[in-house]
Amino acid sequence: VQLQAYGGGLVQPGGSLRVSCKVSGINFRIYALGWYRQSPGKERELVATITTDHTTDYADSVKGRFTISRDNVRRYLYLQMNSLEVEDTAVYYCNRGSGELFRWGRGTLVTVSS
């Protein structure tokens, strides 16, 4: 399994950013997927999940601001992040949304700062 997140960068508070994750080596369509993040000094946390039928769920801290989506043809997972806050600064990773997680792949750093 290869999980490669990219698209992070520096954005000002209140700004928007979309991160993507290319998933390979699995039958993409049959897994619920999720976005996780890890801030310095904190444990990795789950922020958004999407099931095989595109049902979504979000952590309270990002609800109403983040949108998770998936492209089953291209095998990509996306996270659209709006109204970004300094507290959203973290390395973002993709993985399964439930069950036993895959080996972690490459994350992408999102920095929210003025």
Q: Could you explain the architecture of this structure?
A:
- 0% of the residues lie in helices and 48% in strands.
- It contains no helices and 10 strands.
- The strands form 2 sheets. The chain has a 6-stranded mixed sheet with strand order 2-10-9-4-5-6, with no helix packed on it. It has a 4-stranded antiparallel sheet with strand order 1-3-8-7, with no helix packed on it.
- The chain starts with a strand and ends with a strand.
- The mean pLDDT is 96.
Which H/E pattern describes the elements?
EEEEEEEEEE
* Terminal-residue CA separation: 37 Å
Shape: globular
Structural class by secondary-structure content = mainly beta
Percentage of residues in strands: over 45%
Whole-number mean pLDDT: 96
The order of strands across the largest sheet is: 2-10-9-4-5-6
Number of strands: 10
Q: What integer value in Å does the Rg equal?
A: 13 Å
Largest sheet: 6 strands, mixed
Helix content: under 10%
Low-confidence stretches: none
Summarize the structure.
With 114 residues, this protein is mainly β. The protein has strands at residues 2-6, 9-11, 17-24, 33-38, 45-50, 56-58, 66-71, 76-81, 90-96, 108-112.
Write the layout of secondary structure elements.
Blueprint: E1 2-6, E2 9-11, E3 17-24, E4 33-38, E5 45-50, E6 56-58, E7 66-71, E8 76-81, E9 90-96, E10 108-112
Parallel strand pairs: 2-10
Antiparallel strand pairs: 1-3, 3-8, 4-5, 4-9, 5-6, 7-8, 9-10
